[in-house]
Design a protein that fits this description.
The protein has about 325 residues and is mainly alpha-helical. It has 16 helices and no strands. The termini are far apart. This is Tetratrico peptide repeat group 5 domain-containing protein.
């Protein structure tokens, strides 16, 4: 028998080399709460892990594969730190590594407690072809005190899962709630209105879909969605838009400067199930109201770099993203 313990030099060769760190990446840039969790590590290790997490946060939007190299290296050095596992999971999600993201976020949830990016986890299940598990995550989250943005994002993912299963009407109902009000201007309103419009269109309710794309365009002050473009795809004639929207036609959809005319009255009720009915459980196939994408803590973002890498969101997100979260879009490209 020729077995022997590897020599230190051989063992070092088997370990992946640390990804190169730019000189301007500093451990102090890491979020304070995550730095606190790293105090259980020897200081040189903690500083190295912190710098690699900062690098992952800087790169996640522009080069997610390289970001994942840094996150994986940090995980290898600090696998018992919940925040490190969470960061690795979120970066893996952005890199399209759904199984890894799901495993890491589950581990972080077990280790640290709390809701733990449920919208991102559900979106990963969808991307892996398991929409029923995404719906189960949303169902189990009903009793948890989720941040409002996380709850909305999880609703959007659950609606997409319903759509995956051919339950188009249930997908529409899953998005209904008190916050589905065209007069609301919450940080998530544009994404919620957009998702609702997209699912209405999928259900064959063309005029209602057009109205809600217009509502989304009016609420989308940051340009996160392509709601105005989608409205024009449905009704390229401005007169047709006005006929459906009444006085609620946003300036952006009319092709005019944003200040060309004042904000309009909210559209009249279109006859769909009302938010109040949905809140009372009018449809037995509805998922619980949840929310936040890619992510899922308030948003779906890693938040590894102070004031910078709050990406995720689910699921989220992105001028061309449509209704059902980042995973659906990227999985479709594969």
């Amino acid at each position: 028998m020729n077995s022997r313990a590897p020599k230190p030099a051989e063992d070092a060769e088997r370990r992946p080399a640390a990804p190169e760190l730019p000189d301007d990446i500093e451990a102090a840039a890491l979020d304070h709460e995550i730095r606190s969790e790293l105090r259980s590590l020897p200081k040189p290790v903690a500083d190295s892990v912190a710098r690699h997490l900062v690098a992952a946060g800087v790169l996640v939007d522009t080069d997610p594969e390289r970001a994942l190299e840094h996150a994986r290296y940090a995980r290898g050095k600090a696998s018992r730190v919940a925040a490190v596992r969470e960061a690795n999971g979120l970066v893996a999600y952005h890199a399209g590594e759904w199984s890894e993201a799901l495993a890491e976020l589950r581990a972080a949830r077990r280790m640290g407690g709390g809701p733990g990016h449920l919208a991102v986890m559900a979106d990963c299940e969808r991307a892996l072809g398991r929409p029923e598990r995404a719906i189960e995550i949303a169902r189990e989250a009903r009793g948890e005190p989720l941040p409002p943005a996380e709850a909305v994002e999880l609703r959007i993912v659950a609606a997409g899962a319903r759509r995956d299963m051919g339950q188009r009407d249930a997908a529409v109902v899953a998005l209904q709630g008190p916050d589905l009000d065209p007069r609301r201007r919450d940080p998530w309103s544009a994404r919620l209105f957009y998702a609702y419009a997209d699912n209405l269109l999928e259900a064959g309710r063309w005029e209602e879909a057009l109205r809600w794309f217009l509502n989304a365009a009016e609420a989308d002050e940051e340009g996160e969605t392509d709601a105005a473009d989608r409205a024009f795809e449905l009704a390229p004639d401005t007169e047709a838009l006005v006929e459906v929207a009444g006085t609620g036609l946003p300036a952006a959809a009319a092709g005019e400067p944003a200040d060309a005319h004042p904000a309009a009255e909210a559209p009249e009720d279109t006859g769909e199930t009302t938010p109040a009915q949905a809140a009372r459980g009018a449809a037995p196939t509805t998922e619980g109201s949840t929310g936040a994408g890619p992510g899922a803590s308030g948003d779906t973002a890693a938040g590894t770099v102070e004031g910078d890498a709050e990406t995720a969101e689910p699921a989220g997100d992105r001028a061309e993203e449509r209704t059902s979260g980042r995973a659906e879009r990227e999985a479709g490209e594969r």
